[in-house]
Amino acid sequence: SLFSYSVVEEEVWCCRVAPMMDWTDNHFRTLARLLSKHAWLYTEMVVAETIVHQKDNLSNTPLFSKLVEATWRACQKRLHLQTATASMKLTSICWKAMSAISSNCDVPVSVKCRIGVDDHDSYSDLCDFIYTVASSSPTRHFIIHARKALLNGLSPADNRKIPPLKYEYYFALLRDFPGLKFTLNGGITCMNQVNAARKQGANRVMIGRAAYNSPWITLGQVDAAVYGTPHSGLSRRQVLEKYQVYGDAVLGIDGPNKPRIRQIVKPLLNLFHSEPGNGLWKRKADTALRHCSSIQSFLEETLDALPDAVLDSTVATTLPDSTATFANVDGSLVAPFGQKQEHLVACS
Ligand SMILES: Cc1cc2nc3c(=O)[nH]c(=O)nc-3n(C[C@H](O)[C@H](O)[C@H](O)COP(=O)(O)O)c2cc1C
């Protein structure tokens, strides 16, 4: 089983950035925090067995000693633990794991799951899963990735594209389990979509790939569009200045090339997504990464590829489009699925 953590939740309306293996590392989260003060950030998923195994060997593994300590501190500070279930077919493993996690800490836990797996994909299969996990363990929060998973034949990337999104399952869960919390995840790409989902009744959303692939537009707008607070007011040049201080401080901190300059620069490479100069900047970045030995020299060598207007502008504040409706990819409107399921309220 895997878990990640983020700060504890109390507020109702919030926007989370999804845990993404190899992507939402410390470097990306540092950049994300410069772009948004309020978006909820999750660590990458961490394999629990690795932590347990490393626990006996902490002195040789500074990274994991930090991780174990951080996890312990997470519990002390009432951070929020989240597990992802590999297969919803394994409902009993899920609720047993959640009970075990909860019995060792007193923080809220959540399960992140798909709406189904293979042919276990009816709304009533999903309800059975939620009902069993919620009534057999302390889990009260489910993050619903609104696609099913096809376990055979599809790569993880295709599993995020090919099974159709069924947002109506999420809205039906909100209706049928009023005592539980549900976060909507899957295919959300912009703030208008977030606000349209909210108008439709969603109260928690999670954004994955869009936050990583176009962080300036997505994360840069979260504070104003979702939380109603001013955005940081930083230009990308200023964001990069701050990031450079972080990057050069952590470069090689865990030993030679740990982390490498390439790992630290990686989240920056999407910062100018679809802006003039982006292509040239990326080509220069590619060359610079072969010989630069600091983030400062990397930026000095590459940033002249980008126009000042791009580097010095602050994020555009787009007013929410109040007419936007939350629709499926095929344009069909999202209505709760099927009849209200009265008996399910029991586990609230
Ligand atoms: C590169 C990558 C790695 C991911 N790793 C995980 C993971 O380890 N655990 C998990 O629960 N979801 C993982 N996801 C899924 C995301 O958390 C999210 O559910 C999915 O991308 C759908 O949201 P989106 O359409 O907004 O991207 C990953 C997604 C991507 C793109």
UniProtKB/TrEMBL annotation:
Residues where FMN binds: 19-21, 112, 145, 185-187, 208-209
Keyword Membrane attached: no
Protein EC: 1.3.1.-
InterPro entries to which the protein is assigned, alphabetical: Aldolase_TIM (IPR013785), DUS-like_FMN-bd (IPR035587), DUS_fam (IPR001269), DusA (IPR004653)
Enzyme class: oxidoreductase
Domain DUS-like FMN-binding: 17-57, 96-292
Keywords, sorted A to Z: Flavoprotein, FMN, NADP, Nucleotide-binding, Oxidoreductase, RNA-binding, Signal, tRNA processing, tRNA-binding
Cofactor: FMN
Pfam families on file: Dus
Protein task: Catalyzes the synthesis of dihydrouridine, a modified base found in the D-loop of most tRNAs.
The family this protein is said to belong to: Belongs to the dus family.
Protein name: tRNA-dihydrouridine synthase
